[in-house]
Amino acid sequence: MPKLQTGKRRRAAQGPPKLGERRQMYYVYILRSRTHPDETYIGSTHDLKRRLTEHNTGKSIHTNKFKPWNLTAYIALTEKGLAEKLERYLKSGSGRAFAGRHLQMQNERRS
């Protein structure tokens, strides 16, 4: 039986980079407030250093109240869409539970 066309083409997997080849990376990250340790923030970006600086200098209205922030965990991905999906998942109830169990340091976990 022939496959149905959906109108969208799936992009072929790029495979691993060749030696010396650089790819754009996309990061999903978790921050914890230094002054309010129960406050966390989950985000994604293609420039992790710049984004952390923005959070800590008050350029983000969503994180300004609880600055400064520590980077607790990050995951680097080669596909922007996958990073966005992971960010949405980690912001969900089950995603926050997963992050609390598997992505945060033992002494940072809350009882």
Remind me, CATH topology?
GIY-YIG endonuclease
Number of domains: 1
Structural class, by secondary structure, is alpha+beta
Please mark out the parts with pLDDT under 50 across 5 or more consecutive residues, or reply none.
none
General form:
globular
**CATH-scheme architecture:** 3-Layer(aba) Sandwich
SS strand fraction: 15-25%
Supply the number of helical segments: 3
Helix content: 25-40%
Rg, nearest Å? 17 Å
Tell me about the largest β-sheet: 3 strands, antiparallel
What is the tally of beta strands?
Answer: 3
Instruction: Provide mean pLDDT, rounded.
Output: 85
Helix/strand order: EEHEHH
End-to-end separation? 54 Å
Give the class-level CATH name.
Answer: Alpha Beta
